[in-house]
Amino acid sequence: MTIKAGVVGAAGFAGIEAVRLILGHPEFELAAATSNELAGKRISDVYPNFHGVTEIEFSAHEDAPLESCDVVFLAVPHTAAMAQAPALVEKGVAVIDLSADFRLKDPEVYEQWYNVPHTATDLLEQAAFGLPELFRDGLEQLAEMRKSGAGVLVGCAGCYPTATSLAAAPALRAGLAGAGPIVADAVSGVSGAGKKATERTHFCFADENVEAYGVASHRHTPEIEQILDIPNRLVFTPHLAPLDRGLLSTVTIPLGEHMPTQSELDQLYCDFYRDDALVSVLTGGVQPKTASVAGTCRAHVAVVLNEHARVIVATCAIDNVGKGAAGQAVQCANIVFGLPETCGLGAVAIPA
Amino acid sequence: MTIKAGVVGAAGFAGIEAVRLILGHPEFELAAATSNELAGKRISDVYPNFHGVTEIEFSAHEDAPLESCDVVFLAVPHTAAMAQAPALVEKGVAVIDLSADFRLKDPEVYEQWYNVPHTATDLLEQAAFGLPELFRDGLEQLAEMRKSGAGVLVGCAGCYPTATSLAAAPALRAGLAGAGPIVADAVSGVSGAGKKATERTHFCFADENVEAYGVASHRHTPEIEQILDIPNRLVFTPHLAPLDRGLLSTVTIPLGEHMPTQSELDQLYCDFYRDDALVSVLTGGVQPKTASVAGTCRAHVAVVLNEHARVIVATCAIDNVGKGAAGQAVQCANIVFGLPETCGLGAVAIPA
Amino acid sequence: MTIKAGVVGAAGFAGIEAVRLILGHPEFELAAATSNELAGKRISDVYPNFHGVTEIEFSAHEDAPLESCDVVFLAVPHTAAMAQAPALVEKGVAVIDLSADFRLKDPEVYEQWYNVPHTATDLLEQAAFGLPELFRDGLEQLAEMRKSGAGVLVGCAGCYPTATSLAAAPALRAGLAGAGPIVADAVSGVSGAGKKATERTHFCFADENVEAYGVASHRHTPEIEQILDIPNRLVFTPHLAPLDRGLLSTVTIPLGEHMPTQSELDQLYCDFYRDDALVSVLTGGVQPKTASVAGTCRAHVAVVLNEHARVIVATCAIDNVGKGAAGQAVQCANIVFGLPETCGLGAVAIPA
Amino acid sequence: MTIKAGVVGAAGFAGIEAVRLILGHPEFELAAATSNELAGKRISDVYPNFHGVTEIEFSAHEDAPLESCDVVFLAVPHTAAMAQAPALVEKGVAVIDLSADFRLKDPEVYEQWYNVPHTATDLLEQAAFGLPELFRDGLEQLAEMRKSGAGVLVGCAGCYPTATSLAAAPALRAGLAGAGPIVADAVSGVSGAGKKATERTHFCFADENVEAYGVASHRHTPEIEQILDIPNRLVFTPHLAPLDRGLLSTVTIPLGEHMPTQSELDQLYCDFYRDDALVSVLTGGVQPKTASVAGTCRAHVAVVLNEHARVIVATCAIDNVGKGAAGQAVQCANIVFGLPETCGLGAVAIPA
To answer: Is this structure's pTM higher than 0.95?
Structure first.
């Protein structure tokens, strides 16, 4: 079986990573990589890591054979995705959306945080949430639908929501949390700020610098609250640090009446992710390092009991462009097409 | 007036920064820079930035004329400071200790976190706490004592406590905090891990990596709780990021009954630091950047109201070796000697 | 066919990269990864990128089943390799040596630069030189020998020699060089300095720093002169820059009587590497970037005519641990075992 | 004496560094900092390192009291400087130009490399060359002229020419060079690429990357050849490395008939720079590090004899924005105003 795959918005960081993963995937074949801005240029002339790897050119969106693809990855800004997805799904394409358009189940919440009305609410209801370790059932239902040739839609989780939720979900689903705010302070590499050259992404401003941004206002807040079912309880503060790829989320969860032991917590987390090949739980006081998962679709998670202040501190490291975006999109597509979940995602980070 | 200054442990990162600041200080004169390991080597042969600046050599501790110094900076590990300070104070020296030995007021708390008994508890009672913006009175009292020639002792605040407390103190002292944990997630540059070459400080392991460490166990926890008077309420999680100098602390404080406006918070913070030349409060949504204070003794602070989760998020950026160690030590010494607090500390970070 | 592979010295940067490549190789199976220092520890406890990938432990050298391996990669310091290789070759193992012991054909030159006598000169004569694009014939002869079960030996090229020679060989073999020194100024990432924690590899000293080292004395000098057949003509100056993986060599070659056009040069280089899947020649003024080959076994090469001073400036970017060490070792092993040269080496660098 | 100083083009990296140096200078007073783009904004709102340091705003060029300044630093692109300098000199201002407009003595060479005619050739003849260690006489002549109130002009050396010439001049002026190309391979931090956000300066493209650029075509080539009097003999290849501030030039000079000893070379260099407070010659095999001079106006130089290939390898590290631009401009201004050359330039790089 060869699955024809298209990438819309292939010139951005998530899009080009999707291209890289598809080119290395044993079952997918790259049928289109669109970029209206770079149409006609060879991918390798824009991203020279592809020299000697592919001769494919970026194509204009309107010229790309997207409707004849089996799967289309939408690596476009929000609003663009909900404009393009309906026609593709209609044509029977499996659409894997990396934008924010199909993540929030409540269109009013979407409108409140993104300041635009949702224009594809019908599709929103059908969309599966793309975070396999926490919502695999929904994706497997799409795989069933897919067998009869139906178009399907996955709204992939954002990078911060992925790491934050993987860190917190085992504890929250086990009912360990007491009342009070849950605090997620996360640090991302600069690739999270996108390909556009701005003052924020200028080497001389990003280098040797750490800063918070989007304090009390980042749009991933309602997404994380939805995933973890913690309405109005999340304090989410993202930070930028001087690295390219990598995202660490540190989540502090107040304990309820039951105070577990460290050993119970470790067991809880290991059990929770026992069947998830791409998530490793680190125990024995080892903390996740973003470098250990850079360039991959893997996640490293650890949990620590802080008896002193009666909280749990859970951490998760991912590659924001890998497990946080393109890698997770491919993982979701694998499930939708009935492939092994890790197909094409076996890469191991360089050791040092 | 020329004030003879000695630095004990001058070869470490805090010690050599003290040397650099003393060499550029208009009133201090470097009388001794000790390092038993490097005794006899020129400073510039070890730290080549001093080529063309000074010909001074490191001296062995026992050979250094410390007792004839006016001020001695102890940039030594904990326990070493409490072993050396008493004799110097006895001889009338102003001792500025950068270690942890004279920070915690309760020797039992010290013993609990550092696993050694405190051996200079008498001196502990006399020590002023070295964080001028929050405890200037104590330092000014030493200045009075100093006029009569008495030996005095300052126990300088640690790097994380400095940034965390500068961020949180205005809100906490104003009584804005409600019940529940106060969460400080802080990110430090690698210089915070010290000069010793280890796997943690190896470029190939630190580069492109972010990780938490000392989760639920970092020794700065009781120090911050003491400064802010929040016993058993602090969740402190430090992180390492790939930069040399710089520390950002992000502090989340649950609000009590009163919900201030953003404007009130800004005003509160601006008023609080109005007379502090080395602390700038950033308003209008601007967040502190560690790069803006690198190489200096300055601190940048901002505060944001998060109505959504009813918390305040306060941030502070410092240079962990500057305001977080050697710079603050010099600032304290300035006060003790009746000099303008910013004397010799006028450096401005490079713009980009 | 499954080829049992052992890695001796698996805990160093080249060794662990060999481990990573073997684990991802479709025909190789990791049979042993030795480290006397770390024997008994799981690889993933030392290099956490292997969590979820392998449960294998490092073994002590003496306990490892090296003689029953089909191929053994020696990622050990010089002198250790020539001590271990003979017995393995004797037992019919294909030995791929990453050290300097079997690179220099003249044992006197070896002794002159490494200050020890060569103790396996017989084997030295049989060793093929491991830089396939320039010496493929020798490796293919080993493949023939291998068919009859003979032990064979490859002495893989060093990192600087690989990049420098790939840059210069097409011009030199075409006879374009005139008289006078050939200058190779090369820049390496810090992984080239090895895993040992030293002042040189300390983040705070390596970060934000560029410096030359080994000026006029680096041991790769005679190796490059041998490869390119330019006795006593090479000025080789290596530099360290603040990146993990990556090596760029910039080679300036004085022209002889014939002044080629830029177009002729481009054609010459493209023709030279036409059949080499892992080397890409960049034309049209594009220069190689180390980031474009990081984490891979690829090389990017460009050549520029400098009419002004009548020289050629040729550049080559590689990953010093990939094409410069472990990747090239696997490439050589592939040839020796009759596999496609790029087998298991298809990785593409992350796009940004 | 207070010297009123203006900076034109104050928002760029060289301009804002000039602002920083002027604000810390004991004799200069910042009278104007122009930026048409940012006019009306506080400097500290654009470069937050100035919070708590100055309240000054950028002013539009046409509103700035430049003609009443004693000294004006032109930190503008080439062509803009030659458009603005004549009127200011006419008004009696000391103009310190950081652009390329008044560096090349031959207007035809200027036109050839910059593709525009020189429009201020009269002034070009009067301009002193701003590289004090090599051309102090010309600057001291301006100091004489200045005493009578005349407007004067300095064309400051570029960053690469400064480092390359400081490395090579002692050997070349001593007549040690033989025939053949002189090769300067230099590595610069990303600040050398300017403040404009481009793909080249994007963190994700610059990070973990080294590459050559401007091969055989960089405009600093004729400037270096002019300074060192080596017409058509220079092969200059600049490179970009992932650091903010710092520039290292490695210069390979073929020896003539006389082969000096290493000790003679060291002596030659030490003697040459004996009276230059801002240049340190490193001996004993120590190589210059860019980190040792970052943020300063200092230069570190070393020279190594390579007997093997009969060449000298001379290296020089500077801060490209400091000694390579704004620092050197202030150094030149100090001379022109009869101040100690190092006035306001005493900063020492952070030790690590």
So the answer is: yes
